[in-house]
Amino acid sequence: MKKLYPLLFLLTLLQACSSGKAALSHGNYYEAVLESVNRLRSSPDNKKAKAVLQQGYPLAVEYIETGIKNGIASDDPNKWRNAVKGYEQINYMNDQIKTSLGAMRIITQPATRYAELKEVRPKAAEECYGEGITAMMKNTRDDSKRAYFLFKASNDFEAGYRESIEMMNQAEFNATLRVAYEEINASNLNYGSLQPIINSMKRQFLSFHPVSQRDTVPPHQYLRLVFNGYREDGAARITSSTENLSREVKTGEKKGADGKTVDVMTTVTAKITYYRKVKSARSASMLTITDASSQAVLKSETIEGRSNWQQDWATYTGDIRALSGSQQNLCKQRESSPNDKDLYNQAMRNLESNLEQALRGFYNRY
User: Which residue of 9, 64, 210, 340 is most buried, as measured by CB atoms within 10 A?
Assistant: First the structure.
């Protein structure tokens, strides 16, 4: 196995070099530089990686800077963000080269654009801020979400840029769907609560709070969950079926007419009776989601949780040799009874799982 390690290393090395050359030949100069620098970090004398870096690095810097200049001269709405990205790429190549001894031997003075980056970051912040304002004015949840991330990007480009933080908070507020929920126990069973499942749905742009918790901001939706009860079979049901079995078994040996020894076969029979004992349980609730302004019902569904207990065994009469191995094992089993607590717990777990699935399926669109 140890002999394989040098071979695997060589194959990895060749693949990396090939990917660097391929990136270079396809005009992906930035990727080609990073591939070659990474290879030279582990193999400083790699000739192919050296050649890719020597040829690709000046092309990468030129290509990035040309793209920045052309973008700034155009009406591209992302031109300043693209400029930030481009200058960051040039600076990143510098950082990577300086941590690779092999790469430093080829590119002794890698370029940096820290001053240029500092100059365009406020312009990128303004670009995002203005686009965020435009999105906010459309006054839809999706546009408010978009505005939130634009204001966040504006603040990332330049901390505290104008009112980016205040606008980000306002956009998040506008984009958040507020749901008031209540849980009603319409049974005589003290089952606990399913509200933790509803609470687990909380995420950015989606807020849940109990109806009883008065809020100065009205909700967009009402969610009602009615627990209708738990039922289980009064007694386990037993069904049975029988099967007649026969099999040829060896019972001895004898000499044949030709003097050779042959097996003596005998037919053995048995009758097997199969038993199956089952007991089922069911928990149920009603889920209703209503639009707060129009009172339109957005979702109404009965959510159930089922559980089933089952046991199989068998008895036989006759010759046991007529039974297969699995049939013999089944005959070793003895009748037992279900644990009602386990049956209840499983039904409630399944109800919780199905409720969570229904809620996630509905609120994924938000």
Answer: 64
Q: How many other CB atoms sit within 10 Å of the CB of residue 359?
A: 23
CB of 120 within 8 A of CB of 114? no
Which pLDDT does position 15 carry in this prediction?
Answer: 52
- Do 97 and 37 meet the contact criterion of CB atoms below 8 Å apart? yes
Q: Which two tokens stand for residue 306?
A: 């089922």
pTM here is 0.77
d(CA 205, CA 207): 7
The residue ranges of every structural domain in the chain are 16-172, 231-363
Which amino acid appears at position 128 of this protein?
A: C
Task: Provide the token pair at 181.
Answer: 């929920």
Residues 6+ positions from 300 with CB-CB distance below 8 Å: 286, 287, 288, 289
Summarised one tens digit per residue, pLDDT across range 195-217 is: 899 989 999 999 999 998 877 89
- Identify residue 46 by its one-letter amino acid code: N
pLDDT at 33: 96
State which residues of the chain have pLDDT below 70: 1-20
Taking the CA of residue 98 as centre, how many other CA atoms within 13 Å lie in the half-sphere pointing to its CB?
10
Which alpha helices (DSSP H) does the chain contain, by range? Answer: 4-25, 29-42, 47-72, 79-97, 101-106, 114-137, 141-157, 164-175, 195-199, 325-331, 340-363
Cα(133)–Cα(124) distance, integer angstroms = 14
